[in-house]
Write a structure and sequence with these properties.
Distance between the termini: 37 Å
Low-confidence stretches: none
Number of helices: 2
Shape: globular
Number of strands: 18
CATH architecture of the largest domain: Alpha-Beta Complex
CATH class of the largest domain: Alpha Beta
Order of helices and strands: EEEHEEEEEEEEEEEHEEEE
């Protein structure tokens, strides 16, 4: 399934509704969030149907209980769940927040995230754009925008070779690579060791590439063809 959170363009909602995308339409599902849908067995009663062109897709997991960003197969760091933003979000430079006007560029680390569902299993995958301001001291260099979306794709929808990814800035390709070497089962096992995983937790792969010098006014697309295009606009 291709799952999302959305709202109709003429009926804005902060959290949105759960939907299943089929071709050029979105079918509203009777679940409060993707997390509750996963814990409820992965199915829900269907409600209304909307043309895809007439809705806005939101962050599929707006408030993940935890975000674990993997440095390599055996090491991860926690990231800020409050920094999650969805498709079409505006990412503001330090200049745009009243910071040093000489610091107007950002860096993107392109990743993919596994979304935990029921029984500690990885229930789906989504694109993950980690934004960084390398002029700030860690950990505040990457504490302000973590993009996810546009949808969560369940494993049954994915074929071999699905982990290819591309980053474009204003339509120009700046990075291309894959996540083929990342072992999701090992990552899940490490994350679950001596603790409990919750539905909606994100396990984030190491980056396939880094794009520096992204300036105000530029449009950035992280495309994972099997998932879709996660687009952000930089401002400042």
């Amino acid at each position: 399934m291709r799952l999302c959170m959305f709202h109709p363009l003429d009926h804005p909602l902060e959290r949105g509704w759960v939907g299943r995308i089929e071709g050029d339409r979105v079918i509203q599902l009777a679940a409060q969030t993707l997390q509750t849908m996963f814990t409820g067995g992965g199915s829900a009663r269907e409600h209304a149907e909307y043309p895809l062109a007439e809705v806005r897709l939101l962050a599929p997991v707006l408030h993940p209980p935890a975000v674990r960003v993997f440095v390599d197969q055996a090491t991860f760091a926690f990231a800020n769940p409050a920094a999650i933003v969805g498709p079409g979000a505006e990412v503001v430079t330090r200049q745009g927040t009243g910071g040093d006007v000489s610091q107007g560029c950002l860096t993107l680390l392109a990743r993919v995230a596994g979304v935990i569902g029921a029984d500690h299993a990885v229930a789906g995958f989504t694109a993950f754009a980690e934004w960084c301001d390398l002029g700030c001291a860690a950990p505040k260099d990457r504490d302000f925008a973590l993009g996810i979306g546009p949808v969560v794709v369940t494993p049954d929808e994915l074929t071999s070779g699905w982990r290819e990814a591309i980053v474009r800035v204003d339509g120009i390709e700046r990075a291309r690579g894959s996540f083929e070497d990342f072992d999701w089962q090992a990552a899940r096992d490490l994350a679950a060791k001596r603790t409990r995983l919750f539905s909606g937790d994100l396990l984030v792969s190491p980056p396939f590439g880094t794009v520096d010098g992204i300036a105000s006014g530029e449009v950035v697309e992280l495309e994972i063809p099997a998932i879709g295009v996660l687009e952000h606009v930089v401002s400042g």
